[in-house]
Amino acid sequence: MAETVKKTTAAKPAAEKKAVAPKATAKKESPVDKVAPKASTKPATSKKPAAEKTAVKKPAVASKLNNAVYATGKRKSSVARVYMAPGKGEATVNSIPMATYFKRPVLQMILGQPFGVTKREGQYDIRVFVSGGGLSGQAGAVKHGISKCLTMIEPDLRGGLKKAGFLTRDSRTVERKHYGYRKARRSTQYSKR
């Protein structure tokens, strides 16, 4: 039985070689044929009308305010792009109402501080695009951006905002982890033995 198995396995490679050779020659002859089917296989009816494409896209420019003042605020690892213009006091953060985006009362208090110091509550419309960090850092970045916008619109407000410390970028960030320590400054537990 072992001899018959050897004979069948030896016969298979010869048959495979014969079958492979004609396929290789067919591939050499067909480069011209490959180009033509690709051009003809594309259906012309798969394109969508231009009206559907414009309806799907969100207009990025429409979310910004017209004739607005722009400023960038930063805090920790967050960056906020603030657009401010005179209006009714509407405020959105990343196309979401500010009160919905920053739900905690502490964060809402932080955002209202520049308006409280300058006594300008409800006089400006705000559009904010913020990214990076957590909610606390984002709220600080928005406050910094709002303060900078207020000084651009009304330069007389600069003294009060500067005295309150809202125009200074808070440079405190997370310290990096150091080699040989568990965290930035936390060392390993002492072991006597």
Main attributes of the structure:
Ribosomal Protein S5, domain 2, 193 residues, 5-stranded mixed β-sheet, 7 helices, alpha+beta
Please, could you describe this protein's structure?
- By secondary structure, this protein is α+β, with helices and mostly antiparallel strands.
- The protein has helices at 2-29, 31-40, 50-56, 98-101, 105-118, 135-153, 158-164, and strands at 69-75, 78-86, 91-93, 96-97, 124-131.
- Among the domains are: 2-30; 69-164, 2-Layer Sandwich (Ribosomal Protein S5, domain 2).
- The chain contains seven helices and five strands, in the order αααββββααβαα.
- A five-stranded mixed β-sheet has the order 1-2-5-3-4.
- A hairpin with a 2-residue loop joins strand 3 and strand 4.
- Helix 5 (105-118) runs parallel beside helix 6 (135-153).
- The longest helix is centred in the first third of the chain and has 28 residues, at 2-29.
- The radius of gyration is 33 Å and the shape is elongated.
- The relative contact order is 0.12.
